[in-house]
């Protein structure tokens, strides 16, 4: 990276600040015309400087024209230049996420695009992530936000060992290096913000019936480490949803992650008892008991805003019974399926073979069941279960390998930053000193031990469990 480029950008920023402070012409009258002369993709800093002045604290000038320029900027700015004006971009994103300056559908799309232009890997959490999630969920504009929400968060603002890079314009930098409260791209983030974000993400995935991702999002909330080892209100709410989603995702009640805090796990057993009772019956053939258990706690589902998820669970009960039949059969008649499965919505078997066949066809169409419906010469209709996955063709395999290689390359700066952060942490250094001393002591006693040496659990957790 040429240092002259960084110097040029800094000089340009100084001149822009002077120009905006004392413009030769009033920007409220001529700002929109000035934007017509600037290309937001080429001169992003100049464009944003004028745009920021026209938008904040209030929109000045022709409103429709300025808002059109705003959208054009957010969709097309040069991310390299914008690294030098993070605070101005954050103020613009905050304004847009307010939901009053642009139509929500446009605002969500524009902010989502801007976030990923700054950090294509989507690995760094910022205050704009939570603002985006709130706007997307509250206005039901979920689809355009998913490209951000689906990204795996690796870094958070305020993490230790941050140091200012020599050149912000270095495009090989990890997002944790140039996206920081010191560079202005984010406000400080508290634990409550992270929990709310994952909670909203889980609810958005639920609205799309993406139970796999919803389960993972709620699980992040449920297992979040707390200072006193207990659980907050939002963690308890997430646990209830996590139980229901686990039934939809796995077909049964799953145990809490091993890394869940003991005190939190104990609270969940009490606070989530009605949900656990439903979960315990889901993996049985007692459809009537499940229906009764659900009806008994209708008031609880309403108070917890989980009526929709409960209905999804009742609907999925018979579907999971059908899917579990593939553990016994490779091929089974529709008539047998009707006799062996029941609906939790009615507590009994379906009234006709046509009803069960229609249910199975819908499952196949939605890809929740791998199978085909066939008819024998005697007219008997069968369901044949298919393998969960089929072998890829050579071309498909090559395409998957190329896609994986691109993903791994994108993760390289993240890996390097994580490795550096680990290598300079106090806990890791203490652990390495202990390991070197242990190795020296053991080599004196038995030089043949080599790989047989092990690390005590206490040492592995040193500095992790007791740092809060």
From TrEMBL:
Pfam families tied to this protein: COP9_hel_rpt (PF22788)
Main subcellular localisation: cytoplasm
GO CC annotation: COP9 signalosome; cytoplasm
Keyword Nucleus: yes
InterPro entries cross-referenced by the UniProt entry: COP9_N, CSN3, PCI_dom
Entry's Gene Ontology BP terms: ubiquitin-dependent protein catabolic process
Domain PCI stretches: 213-387
Localisation: Cytoplasm; Nucleus
Keyword line: Cytoplasm, Nucleus, Signalosome
The family this protein is said to belong to: Belongs to the CSN3 family.
Annotated protein name in UniProt: COP9 signalosome complex subunit 3
Source organism (scientific name): Apiospora kogelbergensis
């Amino acid at each position: 990276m040429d240092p002259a480029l960084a110097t040029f950008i800094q000089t340009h920023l100084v001149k822009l600040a002077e120009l905006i402070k004392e413009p030769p012409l009033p920007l409220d009258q001529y700002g929109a015309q000035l934007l017509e002369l600037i290309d937001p993709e080429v001169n992003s800093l100049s464009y944003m400087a004028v745009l920021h002045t026209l938008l904040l604290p209030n929109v000045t000038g022709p409103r429709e024209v300025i808002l059109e320029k705003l959208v054009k900027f957010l969709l097309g700015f040069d991310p390299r230049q914008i690294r030098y004006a993070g605070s101005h971009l954050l103020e613009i994103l905050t304004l847009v996420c307010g939901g009053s300056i642009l139509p929500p559908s446009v605002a969500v799309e524009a902010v989502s695009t801007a976030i990923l232009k700054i950090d294509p890997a989507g690995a760094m959490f910022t205050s704009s992530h939570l603002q985006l999630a709130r706007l997307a969920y509250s206005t039901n504009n979920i689809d355009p936000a998913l490209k951000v929400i689906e990204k795996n968060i690796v870094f958070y603002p305020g993490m230790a060992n941050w140091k200012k890079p020599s050149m912000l314009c270095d495009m090989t930098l990890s997002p944790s290096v140039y996206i920081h409260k010191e560079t202005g791209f984010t406000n400080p983030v508290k634990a409550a913000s992270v929990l709310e974000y994952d909670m909203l993400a889980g609810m958005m995935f639920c609205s799309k019936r993406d139970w796999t991702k919803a389960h993972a999002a709620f699980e992040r909330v449920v297992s979040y480490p707390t200072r006193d080892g207990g659980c907050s209100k939002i963690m308890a709410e997430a646990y209830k949803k996590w139980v229901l989603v686990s039934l939809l995702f796995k077909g049964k009640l799953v145990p809490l992650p091993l890394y869940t805090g003991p005190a939190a796990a104990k609270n969940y057993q009490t606070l989530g008892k009605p949900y656990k009772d439903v979960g315990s019956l889901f993996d049985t053939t007692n459809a009537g008991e499940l229906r009764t258990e659900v009806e008994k706690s209708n008031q609880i589902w309403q108070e917890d805003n989980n009526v929709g998820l409960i209905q999804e669970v009742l609907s999925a009960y018979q579907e999971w019974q059908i899917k579990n039949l593939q553990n016994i059969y490779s091929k089974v008649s529709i008539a047998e399926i009707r006799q062996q499965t029941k609906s939790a919505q009615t507590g009994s078997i379906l009234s006709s073979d046509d009803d069960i066949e229609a249910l199975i066809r819908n499952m196949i169409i939605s890809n929740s069941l791998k199978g085909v419906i066939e008819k024998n010469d005697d007219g008997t209709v069968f369901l044949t279960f298919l393998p969960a996955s089929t072998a890829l063709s050579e071309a498909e395999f090559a395409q998957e390998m190329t896609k994986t290689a691109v993903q791994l390359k994108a993760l390289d700066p993240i890996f390097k930053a994580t490795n550096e952060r680990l290598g300079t942490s106090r806990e890791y250094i203490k652990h390495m000193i202990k390991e070197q001393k242990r190795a020296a002591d053991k080599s004196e006693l038995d030089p043949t031990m080599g790989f047989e040496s092990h690390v005590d659990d206490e040492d592995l957790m040193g500095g992790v469990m007791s740092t809060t």
